[in-house]
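Q: Okay, next protein. This is Phage protein gp47/JayE from Kaistia dalseonensis. I've checked the sequence twice, so it should be correct. Can you predict the 3D structure?
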Amino acid sequence: MPFPISSPQALTRRLESLMEAELRRARPDAAPAAIARAVRSPRGVISALIRVTALAVYEVHLHLRWWGDQYFPDTAEAEFLARHASIWGVVRRPATRAIGYAWVQGAVGTIIPAGALLIGLGATFTVTEAVTIEESDEEGWARLSVEAVDTGIAGNTAADTPLTLSAPIVGLVEPVAYVDESGLTGGAVVETDASLLARLLEIIREPAHGGAFFDYPVWIKNKFAATQVAALGNWVGPGSVGVVVAMGTALLPRVPTEAEITAMATYLDEVRPVTAEVIVLPVILVEQPLTILLDPFEVSVKTAVQAAVSTIFAAEAKIGTRLPKSRLSEAISAATGEYRHELTIPAGDILPGARELPIPGAITWVAPE
């Protein structure tokens, strides 16, 4: 049952009543009105003591309620939430660095050393492995593995962005590297309390089993800014595990880059059971077109329905998991301004493949007759 905290004024009234009762018991010969004046007079000593005591008791009640909140992860503050999570093996993902590849062109034999710095727009990157331009490299182009020096989203860089070498290297056509077609990705801020709590509740409801499928999403999300992870048993044979990963956000998931896949595979090789063969796989994003007869057929209602569709996909679309058509229809019905609708495509539940994640595609609008 709930235990509401009384206000200081309510505590004061209660203490006054208790004080009066005790004084009447101690001094039965005293007039009740005199006792009441002595207890309740705003300028009296007894009244001052009661008010101070009421405030002290109120603060104790607040402190006890605060401690009560810390006992449960869904009401705990950040420090205690992190402690709850650590007990279950879930750690707050620290801020991550953007990683990826960039291309340089130069003469055969030119060495780009590990640690060389590349300057971009608002971020600095370092070459993580030394590279030598070989004769086999087409037109003298070599691929560099690069990582942002600082953590956070500033390191995320679009494809074809030029990065200038902080110190020119003899043999290069120009002191510039160009980000490859996948871009530099994976930079993220420290995991939020909401995200940490969601992951903790997942593991509490489905505890880890020392290398079972439930562990792989925890391991990946402890280290990388992944939005969804699914583990597939016997992917390439008995004892093998396929780990399908989607990056980005729930609203805007994306396929992980080659550099991210490599980094995740390296990390899982450190934490996986020794008997497991683990293969990290990029998610396959599958656009799901929709055809909706909508009444009223107005722009504002279409906008509301489109937002509702995006929200339901973000909340309930999972890798390789059925998304019921009824859930989509229910979300559309809840959109502001919607009076009635018919969802004709998809014709039934959305059934993605094992590696597929449904995302909302184009919506075809049909006017009511």
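A: Here is a summary of the prediction. The CA atoms of residues 211 and 273 lie 6 Å apart. The first strand starts at residue 99 and ends at 105.
Q: Noted. On to the next one.
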